[in-house]
Write a structure and sequence with these properties.
- This protein is mostly helical.
- The chain has one domain.
- It is built from eleven helices and no strands.
- The radius of gyration is 16 Å and the shape is globular.
Length: about 250
């Protein structure tokens, strides 16, 4: 594996552990540009990697104990449905359009991490009974992004969960990790014909990302979320530029 993969792969697990977001945003370019996988194969592989690493991050600190299952149930139904629909769309559009949408999404997320709406959501997260209709629609929206572009969708799940009544960021991260697992697995099944693994480097990335998830669990709550988000935004901008320059 190249030096870039050794440096970037742990970032996948670190981001998922700290934010329940960003894993797929890093994994897809790493597989596509770093390992030379065709884009759709990279997306399909990313979905499985993100699901596996999310499961590790969830188990590390027993975060499932934070989950409010009534909210999760409706969000998950929407997420799995959206994941299947998004993957079906992804299989029908060209790689060029899919790469352009992915790079656009990465830049939007980089902006969103520091936007005033995001900061207001974090500052005024409320504890209130969830409206299951909104949970279903929110899950559908995040699942569509997951299936279409091979990302977990945590960057949209976490703020949506907080708006729907999850009381704090750590609890929203726990919910998001479980939701990422279910929607990513459903979307990956739809991409089944593109799941031809090059096992050695993919397993290497998984192990490095697992190490990053372990580190993220240790650092969670100790580091400034604002500084981490700034660094994350910078990485995303660099990845988006890399993808746009290398677009087919």
């Amino acid at each position: 594996m190249s030096l870039a993969i050794w440096l970037v792969a742990p970032l996948i697990g670190l981001l998922l552990s700290l934010f329940a977001a960003g894993g797929g945003l890093v994994t897809v370019p790493l597989l596509n540009l770093g390992l030379g996988m065709p884009l759709k194969q990279a997306i399909a592989t990313s979905l499985l990697l993100v699901a596996a690493i999310s499961a590790l991050a969830l188990m590390q600190q027993k975060r499932w104990q934070l989950i409010e299952w009534r909210l999760h149930r409706f969000f998950a139904i929407g997420g799995m449905s959206g994941g299947f629909i998004g993957a079906s769309i992804g299989l029908r559009i060209s790689d060029t359009l899919q790469a352009l949408l992915f790079a656009t999404l990465v830049l939007c997320v980089a902006w969103w991490m520091h936007s005033h709406p995001m900061k207001r959501v974090q500052a005024y997260a409320r504890s209130a009974p969830c409206d299951c209709r909104y949970s279903l629609l929110a899950g559908l929206a995040s699942g569509l992004i997951t299936g279409l572009l091979g990302v977990g969708g945590g960057f949209i799940m976490v703020p949506l969960l907080m708006m729907l009544g999850v009381p704090n960021h750590q609890t929203a991260v726990a919910h998001s990790l479980v939701l990422i697992i279910s929607s990513s697995l459903v979307a990956s099944l739809r991409y089944y014909e593109h799941l031809s693994f090059v096992w050695q480097p993919v397993l290497g990335i998984l192990l490095l990302a697992a190490a990053g998830a372990w580190l993220g669990g240790k650092l969670s709550g100790r580091l400034s979320a604002d500084r981490l988000q700034r660094a994350f935004s910078l990485v995303l901008c660099l990845l988006a530029g890399w993808m746009l320059l290398r677009m087919p």
